[in-house]
Amino acid sequence: MHDKSLNIAHRGFSGKYPENTMLSFEKAVEAGCDGIETDVQLTKDNVLVLCHDETLDRTTNNKGFISQYTYKELKALDFGVKFGDKFKDIKIPTLEDLLGYCKEKDIYLNLELKNSIILYEGLEEMVIKKIHEYNLSKSVILSSFNHYSMVKCKAIDNNIKTGLLYEAGLYKPELYAKYVGANAVHPHFLSVIHKSIVDDIKAKNILINTYTVNDEKHMKTLINLGIDGIITNYPDKLSTLLKS
Predict the structure, then answer these.
(1) What does the pLDDT look like over 155-186, one tens digit per residue?
(2) Is 62 a domain residue?
(3) Can 132 be counted among the known catalytic residues?
(4) How far apart are the C-alpha atoms of 215 and 128, rounded to whole Å?
(5) Where are the alpha helices (DSSP H) in the chain?
(6) pLDDT digits over 7-55, tens only?
(7) CB–CB of 75/91 below 8 Å?
(8) Would you say residue 11 lies in a domain?
(9) What's the N-to-C CA distance of the chain in angstroms?
(10) CA atoms of 116 and 139, how far apart (whole Å)
(11) pTM, rounded to two decimals
């Protein structure tokens, strides 16, 4: 368990910079985050890239599914301009770009496997292999809304940490987490804002990392509840609160 709540930047400093880009990750670290949360997907030619949506429509100057493009084709696209003209020409990062960066910085990493809509073949094996290549297994947790995938990760490497993403008011999440063999639960913050739920989870030695907390009032409540990790688009705001 962590002494204080970890400040985990959601898709980097996505409140002010284009999400899931190296700029967003770097700015989050500058803003004082402890960790970075990002989303891993696979290109047509099996390169691990970081992007939240399965499609390109919202964040780029293009359309279609990431899985239909090669890495070289994706690299030609603009992943910054939709956020603002001054961010023109920002490229999609690979998982390796971020692992290399975090290795130098001692940053906690939450990798969400985006395998709920598209079941990327071999995604779990590939991500775990990369984590070991960079010798980062101690500072990485994998998460997904697809809990079958998290069970699969444990089967590949029982030492890898896993977190279960969910939005529902799950009953006794600590028992479910134990059943699935997960190290953490990653609930929407509103579903655990009750002391008794948090106490029950902690009593079973399960970590709680909540998403996506952007309001300072909610941040304060969660800090007081002793939540392990708070995932936010505004690591600067959370950093200030944690210091005080």
Answers:
(1) 999 999 999 999 999 999 999 999 999 999 99
(2) no
(3) no
(4) 33
(5) 22-30, 71-75, 95-105, 123-133, 147-156, 173-180, 195-203, 216-225, 235-243
(6) 999 999 999 999 999 999 999 999 999 999 999 999 999 999 999 999 9
(7) yes
(8) yes
(9) 21
(10) 24
(11) 0.98
Domain residues for 16?
A: 6-52+94-243
At residue 112, the 3 state secondary structure works out as: strand
Q: Supply the CATH number for residue 129's domain.
A: 3.20.20.190
Q: Are 24 and 13 in contact (CB under 8 A)?
A: yes
Instruction: Give the chain's mean pLDDT.
Output: 97
What pLDDT was estimated at residue 3?
78
Q: 36 Cβ partners below 8 Å, 6+ apart?
A: 8, 9, 12, 25, 28, 29, 98, 102, 107, 108, 109, 110
Residue 1 makes CB contacts below 8 A (sequence gap 6+) with 202, 205, 207, 228
Which is the catalytic residue, given 2, 10, 132, 194? Answer: 10
* 153 three-state secondary structure: helix
| Residues 6 or more apart whose Cβ sits within 8 Å of residue 138 | none
pLDDT at 129 over 80: yes
Q: Domains in the chain: how many in total?
A: 1
Choose among 211, 210, 142, 209: nearest CA to 181. 142
Active-site hit among 2, 52, 147, 186 = 52
In a domain, 82, yes or no: no
Q: What is the DSSP letter of 211?
A: B
Q: Is the pLDDT of residue 2 over 80?
A: no
Average pLDDT over residues 128-152: 98
pLDDT, one tens digit per residue, over 80-89 is: 999 999 999 9
- What is the rounded CA–CA span in Å between residue 193 and residue 153? 29
Total number of residues shown for the chain? 244
100 inside domain: yes
**Catalytic residue list contains 10:** yes
